[in-house]
TrEMBL record:
This is Spermidine synthase. Belongs to the spermidine/spermine synthase family. GO terms for molecular function: spermidine synthase activity. CDD domains: AdoMet_MTases. It comes from Trichonephila inaurata madagascariensis. Residues 70-258 form the PABS domain. GO terms for cellular component: cytosol. InterPro entries: PABS (IPR030374), PABS_CS (IPR030373), SAM-dependent_MTases_sf (IPR029063), Spermi_synthase (IPR001045), Spermidine_synt_N (IPR035246), Spermidine_synt_N_sf (IPR037163). The active site is at D225. Keywords: Polyamine biosynthesis, Transferase. The gene is Srm. Pfam families: Spermine_synt_N, Spermine_synth. One of its GO terms (biological process) is spermidine biosynthetic process.
Length: 258
């Protein structure tokens, strides 16, 4: 499936008016399929903007097990209040509450395997490449020589998978708060998790927001691949976090955030 990603991406995602502005790429994005992260290519400039009011997404309506009894998974209350997402369920592969969040993986009829965190769809096997490639390739190909990359979040491994492919990248550090997301992705989403085997990867289990505070002037590219802004991920959408990202960059570095 991963090998077909490049051909699929032109059909499923577009990025409008990307702008290189100092250390940051900015862009408005449209995700036309079902990966769940519709604002994936939004990139923020700490030095050029002051409008860092915390983002607040509508609260999803819990799907409940009744949805599965009827053979469908339905997500409502996403970024657009007048829309809902339904997928026919073939089989529930994993469903458990970790220390931090509810983790669900199921096999759908059309979109393959689907990862859901706290009732919000994070990715589908069919079109995950459109998210992973755009959030990775934009900053990596806009930097003249990216050697050290930091990924915050992204426990499914998709961004790491793309980042380690870049010929100039020497090291990728992944900071993931919930180790269970990594483990279930290795087991049920191997097409995503293949990057975990790369010798370029250093894995850190812990709070990425705290990690960046202790690594000034270290990274060429920082990518935030976070879930929706709720629970422990709320801080990843607030001004202090972006200020910490800025000081963790080397001169000329780039930040990309979903």
């Amino acid at each position: 499936m991963a090998e077909a990603c490049s051909g699929l991406c032109s059909n499923f995602a577009t990025v409008k008016n990307p702008i290189l502005c100092g250390r940051i790429i900015t862009g408005n994005s449209t995700h036309r399929m079902h990966s769940g992260r519709q604002n994936f290519a939004s990139v923020v400039s700490p030095q050029g903007r002051e409008d860092f009011a915390p983002y607040s997404a509508p609260t999803p309506i819990p799907f409940g097990m009744d949805a599965f009894k009827k053979g469908w998974y339905t997500e409502t209350g996403s970024l657009y209040s007048d829309q809902a997402l339904s997928m026919k369920v073939e089989k529930i592969l994993y469903h458990k509450k970790s220390k931090y969040q509810d983790i669900l993986i199921f096999e759908s009829t059309i979109f393959g395997r689907v990862l859901v965190l706290d009732d919000s769809v994070q990715l589908t096997e069919f079109d995950e490449c459109s998210y992973q490639e755009m959030i990775s390739f934009l900053p990596l190909n806009s930097h003249p020589n990216p050697k050290k990359v930091l990924v915050i979040g992204g426990g499914d491994g998709g961004v790491v998978r793309e980042a380690v492919k870049h010929p100039s990248v020497e090291s990728v550090t992944l900071c993931e708060l919930d180790e269970e997301v990594i483990e279930v992705s290795k087991k049920y989403l191997p097409f995503m998790a293949k990057g975990f085997d790369s010798p370029k990867l250093t894995l850190y289990i812990g709070d990425g927001a705290e990690f960046v505070k202790n690594h000034p002037n270290e990274f060429d590219v920082i990518i935030t691949d976070s879930p929706d802004p709720k629970g422990p991920a709320v801080c990843l959408f607030q001004k202090p976090y972006y200020e910490s990202l800025k000081q963790a960059l080397k001169p000329g570095g780039l930040i990309a955030s979903q």
